[in-house]
Known about the structure:
The protein has 277 residues and is an all-alpha fold.
Amino acid sequence: MSAPTLERTAPAVVPAAPVARVLRAPLRALPAARELLLLALLYVGYTTSRLLADGDVAEARRHARQVLSVERFLDIDVEHVLNDAVLHVRWLEVGAAYWYAVLHYVVTPAVLLLVWRRGPAVYRPARRALVLATAAALVGFLLFPTAPPRLLGGYTDVLDATSAWGWWGAHASAPRGLGGATNELAAMPSMHVGWAVWVALVLAGLARHRWQRAAAYAYAVGTLLVVVVTANHWLLDGVVGGALMLAALGVAGVAPVAGRTTASRRTPISFAQARTF
């Protein structure tokens, strides 16, 4: 009887394609990690600069009175009227407080993520504009510290009045107990409004329908109203913040293409080409 033969089986071969995909995964994650690091550094710089600017309350109040004087000269000192309009209307007070304390920190990152997913041609100029305007605002906070209306007297701090409905206290949108971690003398310019203008124009540039563009613009207008009615900014703070962002968008090359033809109406408005940041 012959001995049984043992058949040799070839070792399993792992397909090359899945291995390559696994090896490339970390490389694909590098751009996203770089962007997160850049934005984290921007936020740290933003917070640090605001704290460095926090100092002379008397000087900040003097600057606030100068802003108010300009508004009175231009007949646009609407802060008292708008602030009084929401007082004792609880749903308006609470709604304005949540808008101020939440949307600024949620909507902007969400839109930034949206444009990142659209690719570098859209993302880089949009990101560049956000960085440029924020950096310029930090210089403004350092050189021209300005008290908001709620710290000047005669205005009601809506967030303080509605603190029982949220996590904030008497220090703008800072959580209770963390008021020392924010600079309350950084009213000029209003980056609540500046970032809202960025959101509005970026979303309008990507919108496919008129109602989407209208909603984007309404967000910017609503934010301007909210920062004034809550007594956290002067009207001019918002105007300067919006103008600063418009200038940054222009420098960065973020310009919705106007005048689409009928044949191109099904595609979203594109952005002007811009250099790599």
